[in-house]
């Protein structure tokens, strides 16, 4: 373990050198290759020990003095935490590309344009000449994405959903404690803050995966989603109906949650005399009355069992509102009528 | 006014190196492409990618000829603006060549020891651009997930691209349920757009399944079309080995693109005529070329391929390797066609519209498809039919010689009949085999057929006089091989050698005819192997026709192996023995 700790600390020092020192001028292809090799080693160490609290704590403790001494000697140095180790190669790359002393030879190594003989991530090529390939893949995706169907989750969200499920699956296999998995989801949610719409697509894609070994992880994700009411409401109002229906068909929990969200939206509606229509009273109206009706209809169509039960419920609510058959008095009465039209 | 000024400034600095109008053209293009993301812009970008490559190449050579980045920036002040814009255009960065050139230009501007503010700034800028291109994500979610899951960027982007290609491939593969009305939208409209978008992506290995799917889309709709640019790009990427395609996609490429089919046929011809392959190797090469299979699947591919063979044969009628390729190709094609028999309803006639129809089925039938006892009658009929056909046409030609008609039509008919015989030369080989045990009274039709194969016309090839000499050769061979006389009848042997040697006065008999006849006699005669070997060795030694004799023996061996034409092994052993004798005579051995 001591050797591992030493290696990790040395790699953190290596990252600092790559980002800040003029020594990189002396680096050749072998050095660059070895640097990426050590970064992959740290990524491996992270995935091996991140859920082991004891080892994690030791590692974090070990990194403190390393960071401290680097902070002291390098102005503008930013600490590398234990969880940063999981994308160590990225840190190395960004560090190198921001080092003002970077020689052109390393640029050429990193952006080598010769097509790799083998597209699989072979040992020889891994870490080297990767940038040109990244640019190519990104550009190709930009070209192709307008051709994909609009109603679809999207290839990127699908891959992200798979990544999410893989990690959730690994976390739930490693320990019964759901705390780590929750932390992970919160961390992703935080990262996606500016783009909630896309986050909803990732969750959808994750829930629509069909790998049977991940059933428990999907269940966990559903529970987590139900605890985030704002997020759930956003999903139900912003996602295309087809996707919501797919989710409702596959997950009973989601079906109930969806119907609950729709009822809550209806409960918050007021009749606007000037528009002659039910409107949401919240600051950010998300669904119109017409959309709400459409959502209910689609839900009933996909899950006929839900229909009787929900209609009974809506009817009871209508009766509690006075059971009038006049438009504009009870949102439940008007909703029932609109659904069955 | 200011625009004019800047143009004239540009002119002063740039003019000696580059055409200022061209520079302005590319600057304008880069700006226009960056401003709009409409289908028209995309199309325009794709259309200009080839020219842009040439321009970038030109820029790169200027950059590498400059002493320093300061000098470069002074002489080519527009560079930063142009390269910067192009770096963010995915159409430019998606293709290997343009991305490579762009990166090389940037490296060229990167100073190892920046000595001025301009150079330091340029370095910073280049690092920033490259860092953004490689490490920054458009989507915050992608960045967050990579950070939280530790999946490396390259792996992530590769996965997304593969997934996207898979989805599009599924979509493209769906056959169209086309609305009857022309103005209604149909999924086929997307095929054209998709093919245009794929132009810069043809060398991207992850995209090749989509390219395959586009090529193989069944033609079910009038609107279904692949863009010409796409087909050109795919053809050139495929031929330069920048794109690998699955077999059915390659066949579809040939079906859609004439130039790519022509190239495939010519490449095959070149590779097999340049190497000294044995008939067995030749057959392997031809089959591996996938062309016979493609021809059996699509009649139009066969017609084009056959047309190329026809013109090559007209140019090089005496070339034995061209004839062998055509024969081997036809044999492979017929085999593939037989495999597809239950799936295709295209009649043979459609594949050979120019051939004399009465000869078509008799010639295309393989000897193995017929009882051996029927061979002689079949060949007699074939020979008679061909003889009649040539005589009729030649008589007409003679009659027309002083008249208006040039006799071209007749010549064409004879050529087509001969071309078909070259394609089906297995019957010529059977004729050679049957000539061994023939009696003088029934050898004529067989000799005529063999002579026609080697000397198709009377006027240019002196077929009639060659026939006389072929008979003489047959006579000598018969005496030497069948009349078991010892010592060897040297006078007959000598006459044979004379027949095989070039004679100044007379047009010589094709040595291949005599050598093939000799090889067949050596294999099928009643003499013991030692006797046969001795004769073969003597003639080959005196005439120096080692290669020809070895070739004739291999060809015979190949035919006998096919379609179980031969049941006993003794003939194979005999051929092996004769081959060994011949090859040991090769000077190199």
Automatic annotation (TrEMBL), chain A:
One GO biological process term: interstrand cross-link repair
GO cellular component: Fanconi anaemia nuclear complex
UniProt-listed Gene3D superfamilies: 1.25.40.490
A Pfam family that the UniProt record links to this protein: FANCF
Protein's name according to its UniProt entry: Fanconi anemia group F protein
Lineage of the organism: Eukaryota, Metazoa, Chordata, Craniata, Vertebrata
Gene that this polypeptide is encoded by: fancf
TrEMBL record, chain B:
Xref: Pfam families: Fanconi_C
Top-level taxon of origin: Eukaryota
InterPro entries: FANCC (IPR000686)
GO BP terms: cellular response to oxidative stress; interstrand cross-link repair; nucleotide-excision repair
Protein's name according to its UniProt entry: Fanconi anemia group C protein
A GO-annotated cellular component: Fanconi anaemia nuclear complex
């Amino acid at each position: 373990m001591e050797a591992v700790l030493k290696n990790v600390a040395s790699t953190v020092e290596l990252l600092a050198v790559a980002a800040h020192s003029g020594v990189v001028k002396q680096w050749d292809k072998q050095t660059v290759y070895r640097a990426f090799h050590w970064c992959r080693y740290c990524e491996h160490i992270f995935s091996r020990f991140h859920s082991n609290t004891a080892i994690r704590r030791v590692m974090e403790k070990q990194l403190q003095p390393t960071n401290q001494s680097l902070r002291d000697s390098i102005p503008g140095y930013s600490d590398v935490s234990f969880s940063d180790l999981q994308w160590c190669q990225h840190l190395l790359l960004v560090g190198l590309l921001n080092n003002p002393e970077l020689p052109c030879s390393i640029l050429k190594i990193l952006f080598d344009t010769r097509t790799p003989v083998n597209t699989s991530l072979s040992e020889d090529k891994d870490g080297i000449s990767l940038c040109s390939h990244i640019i190519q893949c990104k550009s190709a995706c930009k070209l192709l994405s307008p051709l994909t169907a609009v109603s679809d989750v999207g290839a990127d969200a699908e891959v992200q959903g798979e990544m999410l499920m893989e990690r959730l699956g690994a976390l739930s296999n490693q320990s019964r404690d759901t705390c780590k998995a929750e932390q992970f989801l919160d961390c992703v949610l935080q990262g996606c803050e500016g783009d909630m719409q896309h986050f909803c697509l990732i969750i959808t894609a994750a829930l629509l995966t069909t790998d049977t070994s991940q059933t428990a992880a999907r269940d966990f994700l559903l529970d987590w989603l139900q605890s985030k009411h704002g997020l759930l409401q956003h999903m139900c109002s912003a996602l295309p109906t087809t996707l919501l229906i797919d989710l409702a068909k596959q997950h009973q929990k989601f079906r109930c949650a969806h119907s609950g969200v729709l009822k809550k939206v209806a409960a918050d509606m007021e009749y606007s005399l000037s528009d002659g229509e039910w409107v949401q009273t919240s600051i950010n109206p998300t669904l119109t009355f017409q959309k709400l009706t459409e959502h209910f209809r689609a839900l009933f169509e996909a899950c006929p069992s839900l229909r009787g039960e929900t209609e009974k419920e809506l009817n009871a609510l209508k009766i509690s509102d006075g059971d009038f058959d006049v438009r504009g008095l009870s949102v439940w009465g008007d909703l029932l009528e609109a659904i069955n039209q | 006014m200011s625009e004019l000024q800047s143009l004239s400034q540009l002119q002063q600095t740039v003019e000696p190196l580059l055409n200022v109008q061209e520079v302005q053209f590319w600057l304008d293009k880069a700006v226009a492409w960056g401003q709009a993301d409409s289908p028209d812009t995309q199309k325009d970008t794709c259309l200009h990618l080839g020219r842009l490559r040439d321009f970038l190449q030109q820029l790169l050579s200027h950059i590498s000829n400059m002493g320093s980045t300061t000098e470069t920036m002074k002489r080519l002040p527009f560079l930063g603006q142009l390269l910067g814009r192009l770096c963010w255009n995915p159409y430019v960065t998606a293709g290997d060549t343009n991305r490579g050139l762009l990166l090389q230009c940037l490296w060229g501007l990167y100073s190892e020891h920046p000595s001025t503010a301009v150079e330091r700034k340029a370095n910073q800028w280049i690092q920033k651009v490259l860092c953004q291109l490689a490490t920054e994500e458009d989507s915050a979610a992608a960045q967050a997930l990579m950070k939280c899951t530790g999946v490396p960027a390259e792996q992530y982007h590769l996965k997304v691209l593969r997934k996207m290609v898979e989805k599009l491939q599924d979509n493209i593969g769906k056959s169209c349920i086309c609305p009857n009305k022309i103005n209604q939208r149909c999924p086929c409209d997307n095929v054209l757009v998709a093919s245009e978008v794929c132009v810069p992506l043809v060398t991207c290995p992850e995209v090749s399944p989509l390219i395959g799917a586009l090529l193989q889309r069944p033609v079910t709709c009038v609107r279904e079309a692949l863009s010409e640019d796409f087909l050109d790009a795919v053809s050139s990427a495929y031929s330069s080995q920048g794109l690998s395609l699955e077999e059915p996609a390659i066949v579809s490429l040939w079906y859609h693109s004439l130039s790519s089919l022509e190239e495939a046929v010519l490449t095959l011809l070149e590779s097999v005529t340049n190497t000294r392959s044995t008939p067995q190797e030749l057959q392997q090469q031809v089959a591996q070329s996938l062309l016979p299979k493609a021809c059996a699947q699509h009649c139009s591919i066969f017609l084009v391929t056959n047309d190329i063979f026809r013109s090559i044969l007209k140019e090089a009628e005496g070339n034995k390797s061209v004839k062998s390729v055509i024969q081997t190709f036809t044999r492979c094609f017929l085999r593939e066609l037989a495999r597809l028999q239950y799936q295709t309803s295209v009649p043979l006639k459609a594949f050979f519209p120019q051939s004399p129809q009465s000869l078509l089925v008799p010639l295309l039938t393989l000897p193995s498809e017929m009882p051996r006892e029927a061979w002689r009658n079949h060949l007699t009929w074939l020979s008679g039919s061909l003889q009649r056909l040539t005589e009729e046409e030649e008589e007409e030609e003679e009659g027309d010689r002083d008249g208006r008609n040039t006799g071209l039509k007749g010549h064409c008919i004879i050529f087509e009949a001969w071309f078909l015989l070259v394609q089906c030369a297995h019957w010529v080989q059977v004729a050679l085999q049957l000539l061994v045990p023939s009696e003088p009274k029934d050898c004529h039709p067989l000799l005529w057929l063999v002579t026609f194969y080697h000397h198709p016309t009377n006027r240019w090839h002196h077929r009639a006089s060659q026939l006389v000499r072929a008979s003489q050769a047959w006579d000598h061979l018969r005496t030497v091989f069948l009349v078991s006389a010892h010592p060897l009848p040297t006078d007959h042997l000598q006459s044979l050698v004379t027949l095989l040697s070039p004679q100044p006065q007379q047009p010589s008999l094709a040595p291949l005819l005599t050598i093939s006849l000799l090889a067949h006699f050596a294999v099928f005669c009643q003499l013991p192997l030692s006797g046969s070997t001795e004769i073969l060795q003597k003639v080959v030694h005196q005439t120096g026709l080692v290669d020809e004799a070895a070739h004739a023996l291999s060809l015979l061996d190949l035919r006998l192996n096919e379609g179980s034409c031969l049941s006993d092994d003794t003939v194979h052993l005999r051929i092996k023995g004769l081959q060994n004798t011949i090859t040991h005579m090769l000077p190199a051995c």
